[in-house]
Write a structure and sequence with these properties.
Layout (H helix, E strand, L loop, with lengths): L11 H8 L3 H10 L3 H24 L4 H15 L2 H4 L9 H16 L19 H9 L8 H27 L3 H7 L12 H8 L3 H24 L5 H16 L1
């Protein structure tokens, strides 16, 4: 599924729910050593958002093995409370924070003997190296800068997280077949089935399929807003990020 065509107004209830715990609050909690849970949550963030960072590092001229090692080391630094304590109090977009952080990290690494500075090859996170490399190679690397590749992989990561959550909800409700039928549906697209044809396949009516599509798109929009809200600090920035995501994908 793509980015929704429109951004729905966000009510106060959504504002409070979405921003009660954000990626920033996780980082700051880990920075302050508030709880073991905060460290685990930060670890989960690393697992979720490594693909755009890996792509950025690869585009900087590092081969596959170097990029894997450097990505692991970057997260080792991010997970160190002593290192986090030296960071300024950050606000705004988590995307911008990670990009600035990885640039700073790579600058430091250029002056060090990397083979001796990566924890002896210690693996801190189980990263799917093949997935990261496949994603990197899917981008037109000769046409994009490191920052642009990072941005595209970031957008793809956010969209995939939202889609995975939506799929999980339909699976839990035992409506996986409906989800599979509707997730990529584009009306009036050449070769696309009609609502009536989908209904016939699913043993339901055209009207029921139309209603189901409306509910799916609305829920997808809500989940996408929630995922983006976790990376920023205000409703205004949610809307800014959606516009930014469209710009990135349209380049």
């Amino acid at each position: 599924m793509a980015i929704p065509d429109s951004v729905s107004p966000l009510d106060a209830a959504c504002d409070g729910r979405w921003f009660a715990t954000t990626h920033w609050s996780v980082v700051l909690a880990a920075q302050n050593g508030d709880s073991l849970g905060a460290s685990e949550a930060l670890n989960d963030l690393c697992r979720a958002y490594w693909p755009p960072l890996y792509a950025f590092i690869r585009r900087q001229g590092h081969d596959v093995a170097e990029a894997q090692d450097l990505t692991q080391e970057f997260f080792a630094r991010l997970l160190e409370r002593d290192y986090l304590s030296r960071l300024d109090q950050q606000r705004g977009k988590f995307r911008s924070f990670l990009l600035a952080f990885v640039k700073h990290f790579l600058s430091e690494q250029r002056d060090k003997a990397r083979a001796q500075k990566r924890g002896g090859g210690q693996t801190l996170l189980s990263l799917d190296a093949a997935e990261g490399e496949t994603g990197y190679l899917s981008e037109p690397a000769d046409e994009l800068t490191s920052e642009q590749i990072f941005e595209r992989r970031w957008v793809q990561t956010i969209l995939q997280r939202a889609l995975d959550r939506l799929a999980a909800e339909y699976l839990k409700a035992d409506r996986e077949a409906l989800f599979e039928a509707l997730k990529d549906f584009q009306p009036r697209q050449s070769g696309s089935l009609t609502y009536a044809q989908i209904g016939a396949c699913l043993g339901t009516t055209e009207a029921a399929v139309k209603s189901a599509m409306q509910r799916l798109r609305q829920r997808h929009r809500e989940i996408l807003h929630e995922e983006i809200a976790q990376t920023v600090t205000s409703v205004k920035e949610v809307e800014e990020e959606i516009r930014h995501m469209r710009e990135v994908l349209n380049r």
